[in-house]
Amino acid sequence: MTITDVLNDALYIDIDYPQQIPIIQIQGKTVATDQNFINLVGLPKSYKTTYMFKFIQSALSNTTVFDIKVNIAPNDKIIVIDTEQGKIEYYRQIKNLKKSLNVKKLPSNFQSYLFRKYEPDVIIQSIYSLVEIERPKILFIDNLTELVFNPNDMIESKKVIQFLKTLTASFNLVVVCLLHLGKQNLMSLGSLGSYADRGCQSSLKVIHDKDNNCTTMESVLMRSDLYFNPISIRYDTDLKDFVQLDAIPKKENKRKFILYDLTDTDHNNRIRIIFLKTDSIIYSELVEVIKSIYGVGTNIAKQQIIPYLIGNEFLTTNKGIYTINKK
Question: Closest Cα partner for 138 from 59, 204, 20?
């Protein structure tokens, strides 16, 4: 292709373009339209793939699932490129999808390819060939990180993002990219993540809350519409499926423990409770009861409270046996 060809192809023609029907909407907000890619980011094991399959469920059932609506025609193809899971692990995902759709066999317009054992360049070439032949409307890549050898390599990362731009523009499809967050800064991983954030139409973050046993998806970047309200789901052991929560569970604001905020009276009251039914206690038991009475963790019990109680003569110790100091 000559530069003249490039200029002719790139020239913007000022005409009236028909209004696009969004391919992916959440709470009525436009998340993805044709010729774009979006990011679904989160820490490892944050249930990104679970949300991805809810997008697929919506597309195949033509229904809204957890406020997610995917608008494709019945014959439009969906392809999943999985770069991380083995066949047995992926089978569980497919089994759950069939259960959600209430079918024994998935529609023929849905295809999955598992590329776990292949190198990035082979995966990229395979994706291009698949898209060129099958012409899917939506392509899911789980996980984009496996399309590079080094996610911090700027040149390699830039090539992958340019590949996504070319793919979406040439074949008029939407690509949904799953991408890890860095554990230290909770930002999209490396140079690849930075370029992906710049080039995407939307970026959605998935956060898993272990304390409340729920997972939340929120919008962190929306180029084509307003931000949607966060969506939280939880696995229901009775239903053996995920359910949407009416509200995001609030985390308890645990007050930071400050030893010197406690008075001598506070300590004496707690110690009296510890020795209410015993005259002495061994160290391991003392640690556990201190954790319970003071509401702290193991480290604070061992490194702060017990040394303080001994140093200030609230407790005495003799050969690993601890007793109350009756002063």
Answer: 59
Decide: helix, strand or coil at residue 143.
coil
| Number of folded domains that form the chain | 2
Asked if 86 contacts 68 with a C-beta cutoff of 8 angstroms, the reply is: no
Q: Tell me the per-residue pLDDT of 245-257, one tens digit each, with 9 for 90 and over.
A: 987 666 555 567 8
Would residue 13 count as lying in a domain? Answer: no
141 and 182 part of one domain: yes
Q: Please indicate, yes or no, whether residues 201 and 145 belong to a single structural domain of this protein.
A: yes
Q: How many CB atoms lie within 10 A of CB 240?
A: 9
- pTM as predicted: 0.73
| Whole-angstrom distance, CA of residue 158 vs CA of residue 139 | 20
53 and 195 inside one domain: yes
Give the range of the structural domain holding residue 131, as residue numbers without chain letter: 18-244
116-153 exposure pattern, b = at least 16 Cβ within 10 A, e = fewer: eeeebeebbeebeebbeeeebbbbbbbbbbbbbeebee
CA distances from 131 to 127, 128, 139, 144 (A): 6, 5, 8, 16
